[in-house]
Design a protein that fits this description.
This protein is α/β, with parallel strands linked by helices. The chain has three domains: about 110 residues, 2-Layer Sandwich (Beta-Lactamase); about 200 residues, P-loop containing nucleotide triphosphate hydrolases (Rossmann fold, 3-Layer(aba) Sandwich), CATH 3.40.50.300; about 130 residues, Helicase, Ruva Protein, domain 3. The strands form four sheets. It has a five-stranded antiparallel sheet. A five-stranded parallel sheet has the order 7-8-11-6-12. Helix 5 packs parallel to helix 8, helix 15 packs antiparallel against helix 17 and helix 18 crosses helix 19.
Length: about 450
């Protein structure tokens, strides 16, 4: 293949990728500026291509530009959050990776790949605002969010009772707590119970899933931002400041970037934080409860969890048993969920048949208590005027893979009624599978979200 043909193909490839690509030659002129970068920076390609970078981005100094740092100083920058102004003074939020291109020991070009995070930045600010809104009503007593305490935790299993005993002792302490449990075992319920049974119960309880945000934004969510720290930054409290005097639950802490885990460790050791881009040390008094859903030794060995952070947090360690190890609690929990969803769906189910009990007791529940709740939610929503849940209502394991087999006798009920029941059943299963998330359920059912909402209203789901 000729060089010109190769270059032509590469230019075409770069125009269809989702990430922005900006390439400077050795003189600092733009030689590649794809459509994605044009959209991200809100500038026409023809106004950037073949022009000096310093002429196009007059508002950016050489020290601030990762492209110029790569070109002139061979500096590699990976996944750096940047907020800067384009040629027209518009604020651009991006995560950039920039590398020098070295040939025969000389830098011949610099390449930058950018991902637009403007919407994600807005999302992170919204998260902080929502946390703040949750706190304000509590202060005014005008509205209270749902709080879980030890009285809400149901079980008689020996392992479960040992967990509750340890958690109640933890509530009398201010030490950090480390909760290990598989998905769906109720880690946040235990964390809330510890907080609301402690001396901090009148202060905030905030929770953040460390896997729910890009790593470039999680630091600002936790520690806040300082005005002037970077272009477009404003003074904003992070979760540590919002939770001062109270408790901060860090869910799935092993998903936190390794470097950020080190910063968290320093905060725990020194009891102060510094906002992103700030210089002021802000004292804080926050109790940390951290959770993981994999064995800590595996996470440490795989490099996902810092050993020093684990030992700093694991002052009080609590292991939550999976539901398959406390099967004597299954029917007790099922009865509580029946009571809950009777009220929600206006049903009057009062019992479970022996066959249904056997079915519930002989399942391993990879999703644990949350999965059991979803199974009961689906069963109650599918029950019509029945007072008892039977085997036909308890749909578990792989039964949702063949939805055409339902529990009804087609020959006796007629086609229209049968199809309606099957549709209702499929919708109920999908909602149970995705814990009531309408968008994910609609994707699963291959229908539009609005269509699903209409059908949910039709079937009173």
């Amino acid at each position: 293949m000729k060089i010109r043909e190769y270059e032509f193909i590469m230019q075409k490839v770069l125009q269809v990728v989702d990430e922005g690509v900006h390439v400077l030659d050795r003189e600092g002129n733009t030689i590649v500026y794809n459509e994605a970068m044009s959209r991200l920076e809100k500038m026409q390609r023809k106004g950037v291509l073949k022009r000096p970078f310093t002429e196009v981005f007059k508002n950016m100094s050489a020290e601030e530009s990762t492209l110029l740092q790569a070109l002139h100083h061979m500096k590699v920058t990976l996944n750096k959050q940047q907020t800067y102004l384009n040629r027209d003074g518009k604020v651009i939020n991006a995560i950039n990776s920039t590398i020098p291109v070295i040939y025969n020991d000389n830098v011949i070009a610099a390449i930058e790949v950018s991902k637009d995070v403007t919407d994600i930045r807005k999302m992170s600010n919204t998260i902080l605002d929502l946390h703040k809104e949750k706190l304000e009503p509590e202060k005014t007593k005008a509205h209270r969010i749902r709080k879980y305490c030890f009285d809400n935790l149901i079980g008689q299993n020996k392992k479960f009772l040992e967990v509750i005993s340890t958690a109640k002792k933890a509530a009398k302490s201010t030490a950090s707590v480390f909760l290990y449990g598989e998905t769906g075992t109720g880690k946040e319920l235990i964390a809330q119970s510890i907080h609301f049974d402690s001396g901090r119960k009148e202060r905030p309880f905030l929770a953040q899933n460390c896997a729910a945000l890009p790593e470039s934004l999680l630091e600002g969510i936790l520690f806040g931002t300082a005005k002037g720290g970077f272009t477009g930054a404003i003074d904003r409290e992070g979760l540590f400041e919002q939770a001062d005097g109270g408790t901060l639950l860090l869910d799935e802490i092993s998903a936190m970037p390794y470097e950020l885990q080190g910063k968290l460790l320093r905060v725990l050791q020194e009891d102060y934080i510094r906002r992103v881009g700030g210089t002021e040390d802000i004292p804080i008094d926050v109790r940390i409860i951290a959770t993981i859903n994999e064995r800590p030794e595996h996470l440490i060995q795989s490099g996902k969890l810092r050993k020093d952070l684990y030992y700093r947090l694991n002052i009080i360690g609590i292991d939550l048993p999976p539901l398959r190890e406390k099967k004597d609690d299954i029917l007790l929990l099922a009865e509580k969920f029946i009571e809950k969803y009777n009220k929600r769906y206006g049903k009057n189910v009062t019992s479970i048949s022996e066959g249904a009990k056997e079915k519930l007791l002989h399942y391993d529940y990879p999703g644990n208590v949350r999965e059991l709740e979803n199974i009961i939610m689906a069963a109650i929503s599918m029950a019509d005027e029945e007072l008892q849940l039977t085997e036909k209502h308890i749909l578990i394991n792989n039964e949702d893979k063949d939805m055409t087999k339902g529990p009804y006798d087609f020959s006796q009920v007629g086609m229209d009624w049968y199809l309606e029941q099957m549709e209702k059943e499929m919708i109920t299963l999908a909602l149970a599978k995705y814990s009531g998330n309408v968008s994910k359920s609609a994707d699963y059912l291959k229908i539009k979200r609005q269509t699903l909402q209409h059908k949910m209203k039709k079937y009173q789901l």
